[in-house]
Q: What sequence folds into this?
């Protein structure tokens, strides 16, 4: 007797796990936006716009999943950071923060087409005078306001001149003693552009023990690799929505085995490439909603910060989920907008919570150990923290996006110092890492360059 016994259950599970098809009848021409955040907001404070999707006949859509994008910009680049929340009932919130005053254009798109009335004109006002005068004395280095003033006078040109001078010295002899040191900057690399060594809205930064600096160049859909001295080495990345392609690389990490791990915010997965840039695998597909930052822990596990889901995922490099923690909210194990993570020598996970203006430290199992920071411009306060790194002594270095500065804390979250960025101010810093020769490298996103600093010296 011979029988074929079908294992249909396994097949069903496989097909189930392939993914789901999502549909929406929303059309851009009928969809609308409302809310005060559509016309005005205040520098550094979160603002909100509600988008209501409608179908071709103008009827209310009742389900979510529409692909919306939002951008606050000037002709020379994006000035805001924010996220879109899908209420799954046909309405969406765009919560954002702008770090510069002025008149901007706010574009809201559904499937790449402007919704009704988009682009909108947005006026961004400075914070109230009392708040500013209170904090300017308390804060030794307010990168954001200095930067805004400088740029107000001569947009672009001033910083470009400085950039080329710094770049020149960096490529020659980066740590030349005879150069008078103005602040903690060692060198800067890059201007806005699409070529090698140029960037458009760079986000994540990582380093390798072999003396490399890796930059997730998000709007150019590639990763660029430099030496610790700032010399361009290579780049890879092909734009697209298929496995092996990049749509919006925001996070980058280097695995101890040399592999390069990339969080792709728009493709909603994490891609793994060999050290030569050859595509190997992806992980988190179908689970992740908006992976922004990525890191590797002491066990070689991949830590993914899902900004949209407000969840930290820990994967084996094979893609198997080890654990996850976090949800949206202000509770102990919750996030209001996590961006990047770092891992210390105790294998604890340090996460920046952008909209909660804090840094949270968790055990590998996801128990909250420590939280520090509040909203403000004072020492140890944040206006939307982004990049984070931890050094061999357990000190935590945090990019303070809205205040355009970098702060250094000890392992218990006590403020130690600022990196002095006064001579060439940052503008919306994002990812941050420590180079193998002990310097801090930061993605100066708004200036479309990366900068290398000394710290605690
Ligand atoms: C959609 O959901 C949000 C959040 O739960 C709620 O505030 C809003 O009123 C809902 N809108 C509609 C039209 O049901
Ligand atoms: C930063 O460096 C500049 C230039 O050396 C110096 O004038 C300024 O006092 C420094 N700021 C702080 C807070 O140390
Ligand atoms: C941040 O979270 C804490 C709870 O951990 C909450 O009390 C506080 O209001 C939150 N801050 C903001 C600005 O959301």
A:
């Amino acid at each position: 007797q011979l029988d074929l016994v079908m294992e249909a259950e396994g097949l069903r599970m496989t097909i189930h796990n392939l993914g789901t098809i999502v549909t929406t009848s929303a059309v851009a021409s009928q969809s609308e936006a409302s809310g005060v955040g559509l016309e005005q907001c205040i520098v550094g404070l979160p603002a909100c716009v509600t988008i209501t999707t409608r179908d071709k006949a103008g009827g209310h859509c009742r389900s979510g999943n529409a692909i919306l994008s939002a951008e606050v910009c000037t002709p020379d680049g994006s000035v805001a950071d924010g996220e879109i929340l899908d209420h799954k009932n046909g309405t969406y919130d765009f919560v954002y923060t702008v770090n510069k005053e002025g008149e901007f254009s706010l574009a809201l798109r559904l499937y790449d087409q402007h919704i009704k009335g988009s682009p909108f004109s947005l006026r961004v006002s400075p914070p109230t005078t009392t708040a500013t005068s209170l904090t300017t004395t308390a804060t030794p280095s307010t990168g954001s306001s200095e930067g805004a003033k400088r740029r107000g006078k001569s947009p672009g040109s001033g910083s470009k001149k400085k950039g080329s001078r710094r770049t020149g010295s960096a490529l020659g002899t980066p740590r030349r003693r005879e150069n008078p040191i103005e602040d903690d900057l060692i060198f800067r690399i890059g201007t806005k552009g699409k070529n090698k060594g140029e960037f458009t809205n760079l986000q994540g930064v990582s380093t390798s023990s072999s003396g490399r600096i890796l930059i997730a160049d998000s709007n150019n859909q590639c990763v660029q690799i430099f030496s610790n001295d700032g010399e361009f080495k290579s780049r890879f990345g092909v734009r697209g929505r298929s496995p092996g392609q990049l749509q919006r690389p925001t996070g980058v990490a280097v695995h101890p085995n040399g592999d390069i791990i990339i969080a792709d915010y728009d493709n909603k997965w994490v891609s793994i490439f060999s050290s030569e840039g050859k595509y190997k695998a992806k992980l988190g597909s179908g689970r992740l909603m908006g992976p922004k930052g990525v890191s590797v822990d002491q066990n070689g596990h991949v830590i993914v910060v899902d900004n949209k889901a407000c969840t930290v995922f820990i994967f084996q490099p094979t893609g198997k989920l080890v654990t996850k923690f976090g949800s949206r909210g202000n509770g102990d194990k919750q996030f209001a907008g996590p961006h990047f993570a770092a891992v210390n020598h105790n294998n604890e996970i340090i996460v920046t919570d952008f909209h909660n203006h804090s840094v949270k430290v968790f055990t590998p199992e996801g128990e909250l150990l420590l939280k520090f920071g509040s909203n403000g411009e004072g020492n140890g306060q944040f206006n939307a923290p982004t990049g984070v790194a931890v050094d061999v002594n357990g000190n935590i270095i945090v990019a303070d996006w809205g205040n355009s500065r970098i702060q250094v804390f000890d392992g218990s979250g006590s403020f130690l110092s600022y990196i002095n960025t006064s001579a060439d101010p940052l503008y919306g810093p994002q990812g941050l890492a420590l180079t193998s020769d002990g310097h801090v490298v930061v993605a100066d996103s708004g200036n479309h360059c990366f900068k290398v600093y000394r710290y605690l010296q």
Summary: Residues 87, 89, 91 surround 2-acetamido-2-deoxy-beta-D-glucopyranose (ligand 1) (CB under 6 Å). The first helix runs from residue 8 to 18. The mean pLDDT is 85. The helical segments are 8-18, 129-138, 143-153, 157-172.
